[in-house]
User: What shape does this take?
Amino acid sequence: MRALTRTTNFFPLGRMVQMSLLLGGSLCTSASLSGQARKTPDGPSADPRPPVTLHVSVTDGSGAFVANIPQAAFKVTEDGVEQSVKDFRMQESGVSMGIIIDRSASMRERMTGVGSLTTLLDGSRPQDELFIIDFDDDPYLDQSFTSDQQKLTTALGRTNFRGGSAMRNAIGGALDYIRTSAKKDTRVLVVLTDGDDNASGGTTLEQLLRKVRDSGVAIYAIGLLNEGDAIEARRAKRALDSLTEISGGLSFYPKDAVELSRAVQVIAEVHTQYLLSYVSTNSALDGSFRKTDVSVKWRSAAHDTLEIWLLRKSRIIRPHSAVVHLYLS
Assistant: This one.
């Protein structure tokens, strides 16, 4: 088993996070656990522990969903104690997704990257809602939440590139819009940029990182970096990686059209999921942080590599989500 990425995220219960994970090893996430007793028709249950639900979507190397992974392949531990999975099934869920497009002058030569985002539209479901924010010197809501493919396609097809890059302001505005307007529990932002922010004077990276951490939104970044300027590319990569890591998301730095297409396809596969739920063996509801480790050990003869996404939420406490990316090799 080759070593791959591992990311640890800390977030309060009620947040959505996406993170990378080592398959065959474990992913550490932390959540503050508090709540009230579950109710039955005859009154409160004797067991006050809120169930935790894990939604796991699995894709192969091409980004296609992989079915028929057995329950026994998944292992869940909380603070090092293995948890018993009580429910296991497959389902589809709707997504609230924001697409943030860098339309600064420096992106003009990377227009083909914008066109690749149509895969996100093609892979969307009728129950999904998407919006598009463009940014140059300032961010602007190009298309509000909608399921109308024609409106979204029109917004993606714009070819105006000018001015500077206010990426941090755009992401901050998108988080505010999701917080006030999103209707789905699964909330995702996809950022396409060259990463060169030179116009967000009112928002520092540290301020934005705190906002992302508390937002419950998973951020995926596709960085079309200027490799001709090594210093600029490193600075841009550092900023994008810090944003995706704190949200538990993923960063992609495609070198060609094939890698770009695959990155978008992986992001598009956020709907079909396995559902696993467990009740914590720790009955204390004291608001403390719990470290949840998820691992998968399974090899399919038909798939040499699997990418696994995990969405976690509580049915009792405010909807809680954590999206996790694993690699199986």
